[in-house]
Design goal:
It is a single chain. This protein is about 50% helix and about 5% strand. The chain is mainly α. The protein folds into two domains: about 1-115 and about 185-230, no CATH class; about 125-175, no CATH class. Strands 1-2 form a two-stranded antiparallel ribbon. The termini are far apart.
């Protein structure tokens, strides 16, 4: 914890202020997003919560029922959020989070995790990809048919045209860093609070929060064993 406290103090001086999310160069705006989360981490450091009991039949990130044999998580968003928690916790422990490039990466992932899309990735979409996407989809929003003014990513943040869709302003899910309307949404407030508590906790609150102990393959094996045990009485062989 001493290393983490020292790293948090260094971050306080190195990260752009939260007010910088809407100004300056895009990388620094992404770093300011991380700064917003770190302020919340400092605020809740003294709060101690019990760990969430592990249940292989639930998503380890959000506790929704999940019986998938391929992924512990119920959706890509939960996978991304859990990964962010693990990586930021590890970055605080070994001080690697002080690297500005890692701060940019964390800020991008965080903004996407709270529902703001990938504004930095959108900012660097190659002109060729824009032309290919517009040619394929037309100059209209792929969702409502209104004139398109920008692009949204689907799936990953890859800037290939296959991963892009033209959108109008109303339908765009990509919001500028620091967008006040987004940050005022209940979902975003809850997500930031949950992430901050999990990152600040001395001990991992969820089984997927610690990079040193999380084993998703073993988790899926426990899920498969649990499902098999419940279904065995219904098996024609056992009948």
């Amino acid at each position: 914890m001493k290393q983490r406290d020292e790293t948090l103090e260094l971050l306080r001086d190195s990260l752009p202020a939260a007010t910088g999310m809407a100004d300056g160069e895009m990388p620094n705006r992404a770093r300011a997003v991380l700064g917003m989360l770190m302020e919340r981490v400092r605020e809740v450091q003294a709060i101690e919560l019990p760990p969430v009991p592990e249940d292989p039949n639930l998503c380890p990130n959000c506790d929704r029922p999940n019986a998938s044999p391929k992924s512990p998580y119920c959706c890509d968003e939960c996978r991304e959020a859990a990964g962010l928690v693990r990586q930021v916790r590890a970055g605080l422990d070994d001080a690697s989070i002080l690297d500005p490039e890692r701060q940019v990466a964390f800020g991008q992932v965080l903004w996407h995790a709270v529902g703001g899309g990938r504004p930095l990735r959108r900012h660097i979409i190659p002109e060729r990809s824009k032309i290919q996407t517009t040619k394929r989809e037309g100059d209209r929003c792929w969702n409502c048919g209104e004139p398109a003014v920008s692009f949204d990513h689907i799936g990953s943040g890859c800037n290939r045209s296959i991963n892009l869709r033209p959108v109008c302003e109303a339908c765009s899910k990509t919001k500028d860093f620091g967008d006040p309307e987004l940050l005022g949404r209940h979902e975003a407030v809850h997500s930031l609070s949950d992430l901050a508590m999990r990152i600040a906790s001395a001990n991992a609150l969820r089984c997927c929060d610690d990079a040193a102990t999380w084993d998703w393959r073993a988790f899926l094996k426990r899920r498969a064993a649990s499902i098999g045990f419940r279904r065995r009485p219904e098996s024609p062989v056992d009948a």
